[in-house]
Task: structure prediction
Amino acid sequence: GAVVSQHPSWVICKSGTSVKIECRSLDFQATTMFWYRQFPKQSLMLMATSNEGSKATYEQGVEKDKFLINHASLTLSTLTVTSAHPEDSSFYICSVINLGGLAGGVNEQFFGPGTRLTVL
Amino acid sequence: KQEVTQIPAALSVPEGENLVLNCSFTDSAIYNLQWFRQDPGKGLTSLLLIQSSQREQTSGRLNASLDKSSGRSTLYIAASQPGDSATYLCAVNSGNTPLVFGKGTRLSVIA
Result:
């Protein structure tokens, strides 16, 4: 399967600052990536779909001006949490989807290790 | 809108027991179903993926079944071990769409 990395693995920041999280597909050109968020003891909730070279598609209730997504290349998508507040503290996970360019299950998703954001 | 439900929410068993985790989904028009394991504070580890045309998949002590028409899947863990303690997540997709996750089952295997 595809290997997906995220950076940083954890970050602590002060309220009001912006934080950028990188998601890289190391061995697979990913035209589509997904960003999920997971609050403590909750499941993963989709935030947005990131499409290479075009605007991201956000799920209902996710503020696109607060969670900026840039998918400038086939191997990198970034999520920037702008003016972060304590309620944004969460575990952010990205994934890539195999649309057929990778041997194995078509439409199988591969996940990064996640980034834990803590906003003080 | 697809909804995924996992029962039970939490489960505690003694070491060596066989156990079954349940997953149900509301829209049977799925492309595949995946079972994941998540350790506390960690990311996801894919355990098994079942394509919609398949009935089951096996990996070691794990066996996942899929009954697409009834919207159900089960994950069977044989001879459970303390190292199996984790949260198990079930997720489905309908093609080139993002996975929809259940809330998971928190499993504790007591030595």
